[in-house]
From TrEMBL:
Keywords: Cell membrane, Cell projection, Cilium, Flagellum, Membrane, Transmembrane, Transmembrane helix. The keyword Transmembrane helix applies. It is found in: Cell membrane. PANTHER family: INTEGRAL MEMBRANE PROTEIN-RELATED (PTHR35402), TYPE II SECRETION SYSTEM PROTEIN GSPF DOMAIN-CONTAINING PROTEIN (PTHR35402:SF1). The chain crosses the membrane at residues 60-87, 94-115, 252-273, 279-303, 315-337, 357-376, 500-529, 549-568, 580-604. It comes from the Archaea. It holds the Pfam family T2SSF. GO terms for cellular component: plasma membrane. Residues 138-266, 393-517 form the Type II secretion system protein GspF domain. Its main location: membrane. This is Flagellar assembly protein. It comes from Acidianus ambivalens. It is a multi-pass membrane protein.
Length: 612
């Protein structure tokens, strides 16, 4: 049997998958897409993205089309429910369903658009934070390169290849390419670069340089004065960030002492006086256990956007998610063994179910927080804590150079001294690389790989860059040391202001727990002590619903304490990893307090009438 083979077109070229155009690429020819692309071009450059503006606009337009189709379907379904069901049966549930569909249909397209724009804005903000953090050291290196006699064109070539900077390198590379490929002057290229800079401080720095060159002012003196002004601006921003964090911490306490407690007060009143004869406890319980603890994420995001941040090495949180899954599995297994799983999933338990449920939840959340806290804290300690010693090291290098000693000899003499403290480990590692035959500049870069502290890491890499261009002199090293010392001082003052704020989440969690549980217990004791009062009327079900409300309060408080610990870590050090140990502490405190408060009983007595 003959098999007929299909003839292949020899001219057809199949591109690899990564080079094929996306499905929305055909939309770039539309006029609306072209007009949208003009407004996105500047933002994409500020975000450091290499994505084509027209493709980016086509992608957003494509998503808007899909969301609009879904919106029309939902609105049509909502109108169908109104016409076919509500107008016929006049039941409120059909009207509620139709309104929900229409509202979702109306908000989906704008939410889709804002989600895409928010991603781009977040990239711009992250880049701005990185540029601002690197700017202080960049101004010192920039001045050093000017003093070394490099031409501005060569200076930007060297700066764009410097490994000391991650975020500013993209902008200096943009300047270098405009000079090389477009034939622009250094000043014109810097003016164009200032327009795509997400940082106002860097823009002002470039404009100060261009103005000094074109007006004939002393360039080095102008740059040094601008560098001091940038340090003052960073100090002001750190102070403002600390004040705003204080406001967030106060808002969190207000939320716990008003909104959080008021929600449970509403649940207690709902248990006593059901609306319309139907209890809303199940719905309120789901909100209390899921939504209320997640409110902490809003505060964590607020802290993330407000705090003083540096572009430091990110921790890997995969370990935390693994232990979180293990902890949840252990919690559910314990609930099954204690025969509490039904009450937990349906939120139908009473005061008798609180103790076994709380114990199972505490064990599960401790497994989720303590092991990763220990491992991540150890990783943090190994990579941080070098800032107090790096300035002393830089000044030791400067003094040694003045005395005519080579840097290798200086490192050999000070690597084991007590003054170097923890930084001595890095110096020993650098010296080991030197003995193995590595060039000193490469040894500096190898030593910097272990460091997570931004200022310490950039100090070593800056030394390597100075050696590479031959400008490592006592004056240049001392200049870098002064800038690093000023930046460390700003960071230290900021941290001292923030540390006092760590107490506020603890106080808020404890006070809200005591108030909500004691309130429910007091009302329950009152009802149980006055049997005649609730024997008739709507209060007859309160003795059953109120213990359920207290049970829900206990579960929500445990989850809220765990999330509040993450907020404490983010507030104190800017890292969620340090909050894991606070989560374990708060969960333990909450569990102990719940078990103790269960044994607190209130006695209410009728006033006795005096007898004659």
């Amino acid at each position: 049997m003959a098999v007929k083979l299909k003839k292949k077109n020899k001219d057809a070229i199949t591109l690899p998958k990564q080079y094929q155009l996306p499905i929305y690429a055909s939309l770039v020819k539309l006029g609306i897409v072209k007009s949208m692309a003009k407004s996105y071009e500047q933002k994409l450059l500020m975000a450091g993205s290499s994505e084509d503006p027209q493709l980016f606009a086509a992608k957003i337009f494509f998503y808007l089309l899909l969301s609009s189709v879904l919106s029309v379907v939902l609105i049509g379904f909502g109108l169908f429910v109104i016409i076919k069901f509500y107008l016929v049966f006049r039941l409120a549930k059909y009207l509620a369903l139709s309104f929900m569909m229409i509202i979702f249909g109306l908000i989906i397209p704008p939410v889709t658009y804002l989600a895409n724009i928010a991603t781009l804005s977040q990239k711009i903000e992250s880049r701005r934070i990185g540029v601002d953090a690197e700017l202080s050291a960049f101004t010192s290196v920039f001045t050093i390169f000017l003093r070394s006699g490099l031409t501005p064109r060569l200076m930007f070539d060297r700066l764009s290849s410097s490994s000391a900077f991650h975020y500013i390198n993209g902008i200096t590379l943009y300047v270098s390419k405009r000079i090389r490929y477009l034939g622009e002057s250094v000043e014109d290229a810097m003016l164009h670069a200032s327009q795509i800079s997400p940082s106002k401080l860097l823009k002002d720095f470039f404009l100060a340089y261009v103005t000094a060159v074109r007006t004939g002012a002393p360039v080095i003196n102008t740059i040094e004065a601008k560098a001091k002004d940038i340090l003052d601006q960073l100090q002001l921003r750190a102070s403002l960030a600390a004040d705003r964090l204080s406001g967030i911490a106060e808002s969190y306490v207000i939320w716990l002492s008003s909104g959080y407690i008021m929600f449970f007060l509403m649940m207690v009143l709902e248990a006593i006086f059901p609306v319309g004869g139907t209890s809303m406890i199940p719905i309120l319980g789901v909100l209390a256990v899921t939504v209320l603890p997640l409110v902490n994420i809003i505060f964590i995001y607020g802290v993330e956007q407000t705090q003083l941040r540096f572009p430091e090495k990110k921790l890997n949180y995969n370990l935390f998610f693994i232990f979180l899954a293990i902890g949840m599995i252990v919690m559910f297994v314990l609930l099954v063994l204690e025969k509490q799983i039904f009450y937990f999933l349906t939120l139908s338990g009473g005061t008798d179910n609180i103790a076994p449920t709380v114990i199972a939840m505490t064990i599960g959340l401790l497994i989720a927080s303590v092991p990763p806290a220990i491992i991540l804290t150890k990783e943090l300690k190994e990579g941080t804590g070098y800032d107090p010693y790096v300035v002393g090291f830089m000044r030791a290098i400067a003094e040694g150079l003045r005395a005519g000693l080579p840097p290798e000899t200086i490192i050999k003499n000070i690597k084991d001294s007590k003054e170097m403290g923890k930084f001595g480990k890095i110096l020993n590692e650098i010296y080991a690389y030197i003995t193995l035959g590595y060039p000193l500049k490469d040894a500096f870069r190898k030593g910097a790989e272990r460091i997570m502290d931004f200022t310490s890491k950039i100090s070593l890499v800056s030394l390597a860059d100075m050696m590479e261009i031959g400008s490592m002199t006592p004056e240049t090293v001392e200049s870098i040391a002064r800038q690093i010392e000023s930046q460390i001082k700003i960071k230290r003052d900021y941290e001292s202001k923030v540390k006092i704020l760590l107490v506020t989440p603890y106080m808020g969690v404890i006070l809200s727990l005591i108030a909500s549980v004691l309130l429910g217990s007091a009302i329950l004791s009152l009802l149980l002590g006055q049997k005649i009062s609730y024997a008739v009327g709507p209060l007859i079900e309160a003795s059953v619903l109120l213990p359920r409300a207290i049970y829900i309060t206990a579960i929500s408080s445990i989850f809220n304490s765990f999330m509040a610990g993450l907020l404490v870590g983010k507030l104190g050090s800017g890292k969620i990893a340090t909050g894991l140990i606070h989560s374990a502490i708060l969960v333990m405190i909450t569990a102990v307090m719940l078990l103790v408060l269960l044994h607190v009983h209130f006695a209410f007595y009728k006033p006795s009438t005096p007898t004659i």
